[in-house]
Every structure is written in C-alpha cells, then in structure tokens.
Design goal:
Blueprint (H helix, E strand, L loop, with lengths): L1 E5 L8 E5 L9 E10 L2 H8 L15 E9 L11 E4 L12 H4 L14 E5 L3 E3 L6 H4 L2 H14 L8 E5 L3 H12 L3 E6 L2 H10 L3 E4 L6 H8 L5 E6 L6 H7 E9 L13 H5 L3 E4 L5 H14 L5 E6 L3 H10 L5 E5 L2
Parallel strand pairs: 8-9, 8-11, 9-10, 11-12, 12-13, 14-15
Antiparallel strand pairs: 1-2, 3-4, 3-6, 3-15, 4-5, 5-7
Helix pairs in contact: 4-5, 7-8
Length: 337
C-alpha cells in the first residue's frame, strides 16, 4: 500500500510517498480502507516539528479519516465488514474525563495516523458516520466538529438566545457556527476577509466584523451586544486574541480556549476573568461519546460540513501549504480515489 510519512526530519520537504505492507488486524482490531481524510492546523504543526520536536520518526501524520472496514480481527463485535467508519482522535478516550493515557493515544502523533491507503485501529477507536454525508464531508468530523461540539454543547451548555463570538472561518469556527444556529443562538464572527464574512453571513451568522478594518473588534462586539458582551467565545486565536476575548465576553460568560493561531505565550491580564466571573474552558477535541451525540444531532438537522478544497492524498504537502496560507473557508480535505 501507499502511505505518506514524515521520514528522517521534520518539514514539508520531509513528507514522502512510500510503500508499506498492508497491516493485518489482530484481536479486537479492524482493517480500514481509507476513502478520505481532512487536515487540521495541528497536522501542520506536527509535520513542521513544532507540535512535538521529540516525536519519533518516521511517522504517518493526520488524525481524521473515513473509510470502509474490509477485515476484522478475532472478537470484534462493535462494527462489521462493509461498515463506513471514521477514526476518533483520542483512541482511548471513549467517555468521561480524559487521562494521561488518553493523551498518549492521539492519531497522527504520537501514534501513526491515517495518511495511508489502509490502517488498523482498535474497534473502540472508530465510529459510524452519518449516512447523508459523503466520505469527504464525514472525514471533517473527528477533530474540528467534535471540538466545536465540546466547546459549545457538552462543555458550554449553549442555550437558545445566547450570543456566540467566533474567530475566523476555519473548520472549528464554521462547525461552531452551524451548532450555534442549530441551538437558536446569535453568532458574531470576525475575519480579515469581507468575502469570507459574507459567506459566514450566508450560513447564518448574524454579524460580521473585519478585524483588519476594525483592529479593536472587541469594542465593536461590545457595541453589538448593547454593552453586555457575548455569552460565549470560541477562542481559536490564542495569545494574540485572548485579551480581546476577555473584553468581549459578558459577566458570567464562557471562553472555550482551543487554538494557537496567533501564538502560545504573552502577558495576559487575568483580572477580567475574576472581575467578570468568566469560565475559561480548555478544549482538546473530545471523547467518542461526544462524537456519537454530535452525529445524532448532525443527522437530525441534516447538517453538512463546509469543505473548501480537496487534494489527492499523495498531494499532502500541497494541501498543507494551502492550509498554511489561510486562504481556505472551511475544511481542506484529501481523497484516496
């Protein structure tokens, strides 16, 4: 089979298409023929060596894939041959709270990921996907969608009438937009592109702010909410945007801290967290149970993920370069056809 792996050193130049033997499932495992995969910003960091510089190489990257089960090992009962399944990000986080063991079970680093024509996973590490979604659409769910679901629904308890602030138009933000609208919430979204803002408004966002034109966007958010601030912030920017999110959030509001697009370290005044009684939730994807709950909602409401562009899996480098450019609106995906 063909795989794409990071070989002897990090960097996009280190991504190589190689041959490996098709693996054989052992007790409790399933063999999956991949049909599609999707990219996350984490994947770019892994390939560049910025996620874990001590990661052992070679490594097959990427965590999010969808395919058909073509063989099962002894004792498998959860799934069957012919079933279409997605990988789950944490192979050992099935329900409840995470643990150190859970954090060591992430696909695409430290465990070999899904950028291969065939992969073997534990039967507990896969999940059936909504039937109305294409393979490409379903491949967007394991990280971005579960993260957004955890931030707003499982961890946030979002209610109808609440106001949500979203940053940018990547996968997590657009899934959060769809889940917020599903819940009857108001959505304010910021972006550097008027074109992308219009697309977000077409998807149901209530207000859009261009942060290049309005660098003090947190003040505009405050004005849009009559000086109250938003109930929820899905914080994907990181250190560069967190102080502004503290200003934009309401008293008793909720900030889901997810991304590091603007960096990981800065001097932050934490007094607003105390003075506003703000809840700050660290969100690192979620469990299989959350994934299952989310899939039921996606099926019930007929939600379709937003896919920007699809590359062939052997063009993983080009796809990652495109992701790094920030030109995308929604998810960047890979096809194995």
């Amino acid at each position: 089979m063909k795989v794409v792996e990071i070989q002897n050193n990090f960097g996009l130049d280190a991504l190589m298409v190689c041959d490996r033997q098709i693996p054989t499932p052992s007790i409790g495992q399933v063999l999956i023929k991949l049909r599609a995969a999707s990219l996350n910003y984490r994947d770019l960091l892994v390939v560049q060596g910025r996620y874990n510089p001590k990661q052992k190489l070679p490594l097959i990257p990427l965590s999010d894939g969808v395919g058909e089960i073509v063989a099962v090992g002894e004792g498998v009962t959860r799934v069957k041959v012919g079933e279409r399944v997605a990988s789950i990000f944490f192979q050992k986080w099935l329900a409840g709270k995470p643990s150190k063991e859970v954090f060591r079970s992430t696909l695409g680093s430290p465990v070999d990921g899904v950028l291969a024509e065939y992969i073997v996973l534990d039967e507990n590490g896969v999940i059936s996907v909504p039937q109305h979604l294409s393979d490409i659409e379903a491949a967007t769910l394991p990280c971005a969608a579960v993260t957004a679901w955890n931030a707003l629904i499982t961890g946030g308890n979002l209610k109808a009438g609440d106001t949500v602030l979203l940053q940018g138009t990547g996968g997590v933000s657009l899934f959060a937009l769809q889940f917020a609208k599903m819940s009857g919430a108001r959505v304010i979204i910021i972006s550097s592109s008027d074109e992308k803002l219009q697309k977000a408004l077409d998807l149901g966002a209530t207000d859009g702010i261009n942060y290049k034109v309005n660098p003090n966007w947190e003040e505009q958010v405050y004005q849009l909410t009559n000086g109250e601030g938003v109930d929820y912030v899905v914080e994907v920017g990181g250190a560069g945007t967190l102080p502004k999110s503290f200003r934009a959030v309401s008293v008793g509001g909720h900030i889901s801290l997810i991304g590091v697009l603007t960096g990981t370290t800065s001097e932050v005044n934490h007094l607003p967290v105390v003075h506003k009684a703000v809840t700050v939730q660290g969100v690192y994807v979620g469990s299989r149970e959350m994934f299952e709950q989310m899939n039921r909602a996606i099926e019930l409401h007929g939600i379709k993920p937003i896919v920007d562009r699809t590359f062939h899996f052997t063009e993983a480098r080009e796809a990652l370069e495109y992701l790094a450019s920030g030109a995308h609106f929604g998810k960047v995906c890979l096809s194995f056809d």
